[in-house]
């Protein structure tokens, strides 16, 4: 059996982990695919209290099935999410994929000559996703990519005889655009190999002779182009010298205009219309002071739909592309609206909707009548979700000013429904760093609030998306620790709120949020009781040197280039591994062995440093996970351990 280089790297790192940590651990054992160090056995009362909360599930819209046969969706009924079909609203779900690894995407071929769909999956969370063809007639699937590279962004032509996709197969570092023909789908023609950023196809022109493509360079800069498929000529749409996100999404019905989103003209991403002949840009939604996120059009290119992130909540809008007039869709649940898809032949829009009290479920909207139909009702473990904490948006002052006034940081607060004493608090910090906490269904937060009496505060510190492009840039480069200062100011805000117990505060976060946990642990040691770091960065220099090659330049654009001596010195100065002597509180580190983003070595070196400094640290390593836990068995054990860690280290007197 041949292994790609990635798998050799993972095995090597894993062996190093075993050799370097065994001597330091006081108590090391295995549970399934988990290696547990210094983690006590989980008491039965915690397992039993968590059981219902661990048995909630959600459903995500994947695609409409051809010939009005229903929808394709992703949901979990065993250990991993798999693909299912439903014939009509409220109908029974029929599972059609049965892999050990999660499957969450798929796109049906629009041609009647090919009855099936494309999907992708990886192995053990390594993110080296491969493309598969699923034949609906035989109910069998076959890998059609190379088996060694990262593949994403499958996009069918209008005729359905070929598809474009993005792959790192050329050198395992750069992301190029390829096109495969359905007659020989395993063969792929290289169309773009510029080697700078991620190149992704977004739409085929109505005659299938041109492709819209965009080049992702960073969270604050992307370019869009028209690719002539016959000549491979690229024509840039946006101004190269303007530092902005410019994402061309869709052609109109005649191939004369292009629609997309950009913050080129202001703070927020606005829906635009670009005339191919005149090269003029019209900003359509400039009166909406929030980011336009998802944007889709119907197959004829006459109607569109888009979502707007309004202070963390999604609103759905419908637009007539012949007049560019739009309106907000009414009577939809307030929460997160995503995975929007127009029906291929009918005037319908499919979507997933998630709220703080309902898990993600699938709905359809009849655009003519505005009738809403619910396709799925996901299980909630028999819980009364009306008792789940409802997030309250607050703003607190931070250390700097904006236009002569103290800058305000938004945060969502989840409070227990029954409160007798001042509440202990867990600060939950999102990753990214250009992510955003948005209120959604969380059985984990509900368990903390309802069963443990812990309030959760989720801040969107500077560098978060959703609040304008300047807010997004506030933590870049040498400003990295300014976002940590925002956590310090949140701690001060908590101290001034009688409802919270300022002597019982924990920090929790994953990925970049894991770095924020570690940094907070040494900056604010005296104000914290404990911290939980999930797949977090512990040293920016070693992280940048060891993250997968295809991610390195993009992360340098965000964090700084460690090859520059001045930047390297700064990154070392703020890296938590160089400040372990200041971390005196208990720490829980959680990691996936196959993580290509934040390698396991980042957690391993942090755990080792803490132990060498006689600190207290629990460590959980999943041998079959990557950047976060996607398998239910692993997630359940992790949640149980987190609950025990908080009970022993946050709630104890």
From TrEMBL:
Keywords: Hydrolase, Protease, Serine protease, Signal. The keyword Hydrolase applies. Residues 440-650 form the Peptidase S9 prolyl oligopeptidase catalytic domain. The keyword Protease applies. It holds the Pfam family Peptidase_S9_N. PANTHER family: DIPEPTIDYL PEPTIDASE FAMILY MEMBER 6, SERINE PEPTIDASE S9 FAMILY MEMBER. This is S9 family peptidase. It comes from Sungkyunkwania multivorans.
């Amino acid at each position: 059996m041949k292994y790609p280089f990635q798998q050799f790297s993972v095995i090597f790192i894993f062996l190093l982990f075993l050799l370097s940590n065994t001597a330091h651990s006081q108590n090391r054992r295995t549970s399934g695919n988990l290696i547990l160090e210094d983690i006590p056995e989980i008491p039965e009362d915690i397992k039993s209290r968590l059981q219902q909360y661990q048995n909630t599930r959600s459903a995500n819209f994947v695609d409409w099935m051809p010939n009005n046969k229903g929808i394709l969706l992703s949901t979990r009924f065993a250990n991993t999410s798999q693909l299912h079909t439903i014939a009509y609203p409220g109908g029974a779900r029929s599972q059609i994929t049965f892999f050990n690894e999660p499957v969450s995407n798929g796109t049906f071929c629009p041609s009647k000559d090919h009855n099936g769909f494309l999907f992708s999956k990886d192995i053990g969370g390594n993110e080296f996703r491969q493309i598969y063809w699923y034949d609906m007639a035989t109910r069998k699937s076959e890998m059609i990519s190379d088996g060694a590279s990262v593949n994403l962004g499958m996009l069918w032509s209008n005729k359905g005889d070929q598809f474009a996709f993005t792959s790192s197969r050329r050198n395992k570092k750069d992301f190029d655009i390829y096109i495969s023909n359905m007659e020989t789908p395993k063969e792929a023609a290289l169309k773009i190999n510029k080697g700078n950023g991620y190149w992704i196809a977004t739409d085929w022109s109505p005659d299938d002779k041109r492709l819209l493509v965009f080049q992702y360079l960073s969270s604050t800069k992307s370019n869009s182009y028209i690719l002539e498929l016959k000549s491979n000529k690229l024509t840039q749409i946006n101004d190269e010298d303007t530092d902005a996100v410019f994402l061309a999404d869709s052609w109109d019905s005649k191939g004369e205009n292009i629609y997309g989103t950009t913050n080129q003209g202001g703070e927020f991403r606005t829906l635009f219309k670009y005339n191919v002949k005149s090269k003029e840009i019209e900003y359509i939604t400039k009166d909406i002071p929030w980011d336009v996120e998802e944007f889709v059009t119907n197959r004829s290119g006459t109607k569109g739909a888009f979502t707007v992130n309004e202070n963390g909540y999604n609103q759905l809008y419908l637009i007539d592309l012949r007049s560019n007039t739009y309106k907000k869709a009414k009577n939809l649940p307030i929460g997160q609206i995503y995975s929007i898809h127009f029906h291929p032949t009918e005037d319908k829009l499919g979507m997933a909707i998630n709220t703080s009290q309902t898990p993600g479920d699938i709905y359809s909207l009849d655009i003519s009548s505005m009738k809403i139909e619910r396709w799925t009702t996901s299980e909630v473990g028999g819980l009364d979700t009306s008792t789940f904490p409802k997030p309250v948006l607050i703003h607190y002052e931070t250390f700097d000013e904006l236009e002569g006034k103290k800058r305000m940081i938004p945060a969502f607060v989840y409070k227990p429904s029954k409160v007798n004493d001042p509440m202990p608090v867990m600060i939950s910090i999102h990753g990214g760093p250009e992510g955003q906490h948005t209120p959604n269904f969380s059985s984990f937060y509900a368990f903390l609030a309802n069963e443990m009496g812990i309030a959760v505060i989720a801040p969107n510190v500077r560098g978060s998306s959703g609040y304008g492009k300047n807010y997004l840039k506030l933590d870049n480069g040498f400003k990295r620790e300014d976002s940590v200062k925002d956590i310090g100011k949140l701690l001060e805000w908590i101290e001034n709120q009688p409802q919270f117990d300022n002597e019982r505060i924990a920090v929790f976060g994953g990925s970049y949020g894991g770095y924020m946990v570690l940094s907070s642990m040494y900056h604010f040691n005296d104000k914290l009781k404990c911290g939980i770091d999930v797949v977090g960065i512990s040293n920016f220099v070693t992280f940048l040197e060891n993250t997968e090659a295809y991610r390195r330049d993009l992360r340098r654009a965000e964090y700084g280039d460690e090859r520059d001596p001045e930047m390297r010195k700064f990154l070392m100065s703020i890296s938590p591994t160089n400040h372990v002597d200041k971390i005196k509180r208990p720490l829980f580190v959680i990691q996936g062995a196959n993580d290509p983003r934040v390698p396991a070595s980042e957690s391993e070196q942090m755990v080792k440093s803490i132990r060498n400094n006689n600190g207290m640290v629990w460590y959980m390593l999943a041998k079959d996970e990557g950047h976060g836990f996607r398998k239910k068995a692993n997630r359940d054990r992790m949640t149980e351990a987190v609950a025990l860690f908080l009970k022993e280290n946050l709630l104890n007197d």
